[in-house]
Amino acid sequence: xxxxxxxxxxxxxxxxxxxxxxxxxxxxxxxxxxxxxxxxxxxxxxxxxxxxxxxxxxxxxxxxxxxxxxxxxxxxxxxxxxxxxxxxxxxxxxxxxxxxxxxxxxxxxxxxxxxxxxxxxxxxxxxxxxxxxxxxxxxx
Length: 140
Hints:
single chain
């Protein structure tokens, strides 16, 4: 999970690649990860730290979560709660990576980030067609 050569967790690797491919510098940035799972949030925090990001790991029960996400340069949503990150939780300069996979009542895939928050941000990944696609590419 460091910058050493070897096999890395695929979805965290995909997220870092997405940021790098869009020329979004991680070094020195305030990175807030909302989600603490052992397969995504935890490894991603270590990997973002290795990229010299200043990392805060939050979850759905974090007090003042909106304050944490509003102060972030980069927000990664990975908690598995449809539309949990709302427009009032981000600012216009925020970069959002939505790694959430949820399905609405019509069976349509939705992310953890509300469309209004995605539209407010400087740049935001799509769901579907974002992190999942790059994760599959990283597997190959």
